[in-house]
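Re: folding output
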Amino acid sequence: MVAFFASTILSVIVLRFVPVLITPTMVIRCVEQVREGRELKLSHQWVPMRLISPDMSRAVMASEDAKFLEHHGFDFNAIVSAAERNRRHPEKRKLGASTISQQTAKNVFLWQGRSWLRKGLEAYFTVLLELFWPKQRIMEVYLNSIEMGEGIYGAEAVAREHFHTTASLLTRQQCALIAATLPNPRRFSSKNPSAYMLKRQQRILHEMKYVKPMPK
């Protein structure tokens, strides 16, 4: 137990300052591609926050976590609302209430899945991130590690792959379209958006007006 706590805390502290160049999710997706006989693809390029359009952080907050700058890792109101909606409509796809901090903890330190063990570890790492990382660092790592398409991870990679530009030059509309895919980036595409994606994009563009920009 001592070794577990010491190693995990040390990892979180180190990664506050070191670029996250690969994550468990990236490795798992590559293994899945090989097993299924698909072309191996891993497109990822770390860039500092100053080289990512400010609209990208506002778009993901509007889409995924409007209270990111206010909470300490968990949005309890969203959790209660999601649980109530799932209870009333069990036939529909279950809603989650993961914050950007929780998603970052999962992407950087854990694996995909819905087991109680994984959720427990996610909560543990979320607390560590909120303790040792400022919000700017959590957002920076999130925008560099989040899955944004098949084999595509981070804002720089998706900007190059889907829009032939860089993360710093992404437009407000492009940022909103990328954010619109995040519930399921392997199903939804920001390169070839469906009518449903374009509708989500417009909603996110509207919500971005009410989202505070990330502090520098």
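--- second protein (sequence, then structure) ---
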Amino acid sequence: MSQKIDYLISPKWIAPVIPRSCVLEDYSVAVSHNTVSKILPTHEALRIFRGTPNISLPGQLLTPGFINVHAHGAMSLLRGIADDRNMMDWLNNWIWPIEAKLVDPNFVHDGTQLAGVEMIMGGTTTVADNYFFPDASSSAFASLGMRAQIGIPIIKYANNWARDEKDHLAKCVAILDQQQDNPLQSHSLSPHAPYSVSDEGFANVAELADKHNLKVQLHLHETSQEIKDSLDGFGLRPLTRIENLGILNERLQAIHLTQLDSDEIDRLAQNKVHIGHCPESNMKLGSGICPIGDLLAKNINVAIGTDGSASNNDLDMLQEVRTASFLSKAVTKDATQISAEDCLEMITLNGAKFLGLEQKIGSIEVGKLADLTAIDMSSIALKPVYSPVSQLIYNCTSANISNVWINGKQILQNGKLVGFKMPELERKVEKWKEKIISLASKKA
């Protein structure tokens, strides 16, 4: 007698992440409701679950869904508008002035939806996003059925969402007081950076984080200029300053960290801080290199983020983590640094730990939610396949992603978004492009 499940997924290989370095060949994943209910040899699965829908994926690898721990989704509308500029020039003279003219709930919704589509098509099932008008970001991700941590921005500068730091904090409190009814979403506090948040602002963030048990995502030690300005203005390096203000703890999601000394690495480890590594954005803006080999050696959790498309210029997690691996190998002159297995963990399980969701997602295990990504390795350009995990990390890109499930629901089927009206989004993006080009042409 056959047992009841919703469907089977039967790929050539499964890389469950837990246990580490395990690859299952000719196994199937049984999904019931939104949960992985069994993992078993395909021939047994077809017998036990006779008559159940079976999604057969010959020549494909099934992994946990990828987790992007740092993005600014709405900035996908600014992709390529101010390339080849140093970071503070890029921010102060291009990005922020354009945002001041155009950013509103519609801009954020459309740009975030554009980013979400790109991420899902690239195998990403979960993102930690940070931008103004967070309710609009939340709506955009919800329209796609995507899992998201929605960062509530806190910054001392005026913008189209809030007048000043106090207004940001007031809006933050108002959002936190609302009932959260989307099980795929959570909130975090997102103070922008040490140079854009006051001591009082950080103290308020620490209090709110403690009261609501929230993660705090912060750009930190991103550039050498940030360190210099902090020493000049406060007599302290930024990490020490935020430590004194109660921010350096296990709730902190520290992003970038290209400027670290050995004592700071020790303090990150002691305080169980989670690190979001964004190598391509850091390289493109000339910010520096995060020493992830040293961080991992101290058992610090390191996950991968793409940053926004305005400084990357894509949201491809496979390319991002490959860059992380190659960059670490080159800097340390050690080819064993950041292996393919390390890379797969950084974009799955480490990302789940970063978000505090490791009991629910990040690996393919019985009882965990069915957030899954399938990668097609049948192309002649990817043959021969000796190790599917190595092939995934060192050969594949978002173009090889075939199918995606989030919370048990298939969102991407054979490379196509299920039930999504792509032409409508494309028309909106073209309209925003015209407005942005008009503003940029006046600056050129």
